[in-house]
TrEMBL record:
Residue ranges of coiled coil: none
Name of this chain's protein: DNA polymerase IV
Naturally occurring in which organism (per UniProt): Lentzea roselyniae
SUPFAM superfamilies documented for this protein: DNA/RNA polymerases, Lesion bypass DNA polymerase (Y-family), little finger domain
Summary of the function given for this chain in its UniProt record: Poorly processive, error-prone DNA polymerase involved in untargeted mutagenesis. Copies undamaged DNA at stalled replication forks, which arise in vivo from mismatched or misaligned primer ends. These misaligned primers can be extended by PolIV. Exhibits no 3'-5' exonuclease (proofreading) activity. May be involved in translesional synthesis, in conjunction with the beta clamp from PolIII.
Gene: dinB_1
Residues annotated as site: Substrate discrimination: 17
PANTHER family: DNA POLYMERASE KAPPA, DNA REPAIR POLYMERASE UMUC / TRANSFERASE FAMILY MEMBER
Residues of the active site: 103
EC numbers for this chain: 2.7.7.7
Catalytic activity: DNA(n) + a 2'-deoxyribonucleoside 5'-triphosphate = DNA(n+1) + diphosphate
Top-rank taxon, per record: Bacteria
Amino acid sequence: MFVSLTPILHADLDAFYAAVEQRDDPRLRGRPVIVGGGVVLAASYEAKAFGIRTAMGGARALRLCPHAVVVPPRMSAYSAASKAVFEVFRDTTPLVEGLSIDEAFLDVGGLPRIVGPPELIARRLRERVLDEVGLPITVGVARTKFLAKVASAVAKPDGLLVVPADRELDFLHPLPVQRLWGVGKVTAAKLHDLGIRTVGQVARLDETDLVSILGKAAGRHLHALAHNRDPRPVQAGRRRRSIGSQRALGRTPHDLDAILASLVDGITRRLRNAHRACRTVVLRLRFADFTRATRSHTLIHPTAETGLLLTAARLLLTAALPEIASRGITLLGVSLTNLSDEDTIQLMLPFDDNHSPGALDSTLDRLKDRFGSSSVTRAAMLGRDPGISVPLLPD
């Protein structure tokens, strides 16, 4: 079995956005809280008890729980809370790999002789996050990233679960197949149709059988995970392989173009601030039935120019409009992937920077840095609800 020789913690804040709202407003504590109006961005565990889930329509959520308190999102508050939590992470160990605004892997292999066993380290971490930041956090501990993440999911909310090295498969195999990374509704349905419902049943299949059922990549991936084979180390300071943003707003096709332009404006500014360039634009869609789809376009040369990347994104959106019109849409997202350093940008004639599209981008970036991101906007966004943009998770 290929596993890490050191313990790994997966730390995951519980119902993060909603927990921050309950922390900052005592009147919300113990009550069902929904963050976001048109679409649920987050729900407290009191709200989840009524069946409310992230990405659910706001009207449906209130039908399930009419007495829920709906609050607008405060991204600056969530960002500040996240930074405070990550300070605790990095004070615990220098080997921290952030997965998103509210979760991370921590390699604590070098700490047991100094601090104590992994369970003690995890317990102290939870206590510090609660005492110093005021938020509950769940921690899973295991020898692989995969199993640590599964452990934290099983322990939620506000829990701690340590999987002993000699009991890993005893813990993993009775769990439903949906606990395996990559098993969504479609894959789960295929396995269920064959009478396969637990991770242990997957593990008892030959790899060739799984490949014939799910395809080469998925079959090998799930066979490895079912045996807890996950050799990936915690990667501290890993550079992002993608930059993206998404907006949870159902829109007509006319409005979607304005939303798309606003998203691209924001992420290309972040791209240039990170001194990166990209070749591939990915359009992400969630339809009214909550199914998802992605479309991508790869450019010939890396670029950080807003105009070129917006043109690519618009081509993808135009191609998807017939499907959007028939199925409806609840989320639109854009990612810039296939990233490289900005010095890989192909210089194009003429070389007059004063008249290049990049000069305009640089000028707009400086204006927004000085006067705020809303100081300059597109005419198409004037008088429109800008919605809530949420950064996509890094790969």
